[in-house]
Amino acid sequence: MSLEMYLDLLSQPCRSVYIFAKKNNIQFDYKKIALFEGQQYTEEFGKVSMLRKVPAIRDGDFCLAESIAIMMYLAEKFHTPDHWYPVDLKKRAKVNEYLSWQHSAMRIHGSKILWFRLLIPAMGVEIPKEKMDLALEDLNESLNLVEQNFLQDKPFICGDQISLADLVAIVEIMQPVGAGLDVFEDRPKLRAWKDRVRESIGAELFDEAHQSILSAQEMVETMEPGKMAPFKPKVLKYFL
Ligand SMILES: N[C@@H](CCC(=O)N[C@@H](CS)C(=O)NCC(=O)O)C(=O)O
What we know:
The protein is of the alpha+beta class.
């Protein structure tokens, strides 16, 4: 049975897994789980992901959730080039350092901007200015840390070559871009790194994977009224 990947490319962890698999020529069956259609709640998907979140994979009778765990599994199973997830103890530890940090920092703050600027207003709720200001402050702090502490003056976060740290970082940073925020404005170093990462991944694959997030504003504008209503209580409880 072939490797199945359950994804919605609006989701940042899904884009990381998708790009990683495609870039490394890992063959898989793409199973779209449309989050705004509520497909994560189907009985069938519950058999793949006990967490009912994407990304998730099924490899034969083995199911796995969590993007980072999935990419580590794929890196080891398919022996992807060493620079992605180096075998060297200290190099791997530096990749792990970013991957451990991002969950509660870059990922959450980048994603919050997409919800605050685009998706929550589409539910008919305006975000109070002070909450938006705080969210932008958190985002900027995380961007500063990526730029000044993780990247420093190196071409990539862990040295001369792209690793899982850069891949995960860039897809997180693209999330607020989907809400129309140019996070690269006044950040030439970050922009140059983004261009290097895009080139290393391949511009075509990078752009294809980001197509749905970069058209998120259009998606919201053309959405049927009430489409987001079922998600509203959960989303507001989580974010506000
Ligand atoms: N830490 C997880 C996060 C997974 C996650 O939160 N996925 C979201 C999309 S970004 C999801 O499936 N949400 C569906 C829901 O909560 O109903 C990972 O890195 O894979």
